[in-house]
Design brief:
The complex is a heterodimer of chains A (110) and B (114).
Chain A lengths: L2 E5 L2 E5 L4 E8 L5 E7 L6 E7 L4 E4 L2 E6 L4 E6 L8 E9 L2 E4 L3 E6 L1
Parallel strand pairs in A: 2-11
Antiparallel strand pairs in A: 1-3, 3-8, 4-5, 4-9, 6-7, 7-8, 9-10, 9-11
Chain B lengths: L3 E3 L3 E4 L5 E7 L5 E8 L3 E8 L6 E2 L6 E7 L2 E6 L8 E8 L8 E3 L3 E5 L1
Parallel strand pairs in B: 2-11
Antiparallel strand pairs in B: 1-3, 3-8, 4-5, 4-9, 5-6, 7-8, 9-10, 9-11
Classes of the chains: A mainly beta (110), B mainly beta (114).
Chain lengths: 110, 114
């Protein structure tokens, strides 16, 4: 069964600190993997896309990695800001199916 | 920019009422989706549509129906609302092609059934 699992379920860190969110998947076939950010009360918005051949991709203070062999992805946030408080959702695209993780709720404390 | 618009941000309905949630997208996307999102469960697919008048059941279609009369509009219908349908409902449309599929979401409708 295609599944996407994220950890931790929730995370609280101090402003300015770094953090890493994990996404493990058992999805076949694999088309690509995206990380979404969802602010409270809003729909998710795409942060970055990882294709099979890409290992690392950065988008400002966000860096996503993908290990296609171990079927793991991570999202690293550097120098966190209060505006980073949100849920971060990993989704794996398999052909035309979107398989969503449950998300990690990140809280940045001042 | 792609825009997906849901008709209401917040709704409160009574048990047994018929509820309509409307979603409109302006980028000529063929694929549209309705999800519900509950704490700890993530996004769960209710129904999706890949063309006008076409619909497919998702993972949790029971108690819901959908309508796609026009390409830009995808409606979710709760035939007889129940308290366990209290949730956040998200509509999405996706870019074509499996190679770079991106989902664009509406702002969500928070439905409370009392």
């Amino acid at each position: 069964k295609n599944q996407v699992e994220q950890s931790p379920q929730s995370l609280i860190i101090l402003e300015g600190k770094n953090c890493t969110l994990q996404c493990n998947y058992t999805v076949s076939p694999f088309s690509n993997l995206r990380w979404y950010k969802q602010d409270t009360g809003r729909g998710p918005v795409s942060l970055t896309i990882m294709t099979f051949s890409e290992n690392t991709k950065s988008n400002g203070r966000y860096t996503a990695t993908l290990d296609a062999d171990t079927k793991q992805s991570s999202l690293h946030i550097t120098a966190s800001q209060l505006s980073d408080s949100a849920s971060y959702i990993c989704v794996v695209v398999s052909n035309y199916q979107l398989i969503w993780g449950a998300g990690t709720k990140l809280i940045i404390k001042p | 920019d792609v825009k997906v618009t849901q008709s209401s941000r917040y709704l409160v309905k009574r048990t047994g009422e018929k509820v309509f949630l409307e979603c409109v997208q302006d980028m000529d996307h063929e694929n549209m989706f309705w999800y519900r999102q509950d704490p700890g469960l993530g996004l769960r697919l209710i129904y999706f549509s890949y063309d006008v008048k076409m619909k497919e059941k998702g993972d949790i279609p029971e108690g819901y129906s959908v309508s796609r009369e026009k390409k830009e509009r995808f409606s979710l219908i709760l035939e007889s609302a129940s308290t366990n349908q209290t949730s956040m409902y998200l509509c999405a449309s996706t870019t074509p092609g499996a190679g770079s599929t991106e989902a664009f979401f509406g702002q969500g409708t928070r439905l409370t059934v009392v």
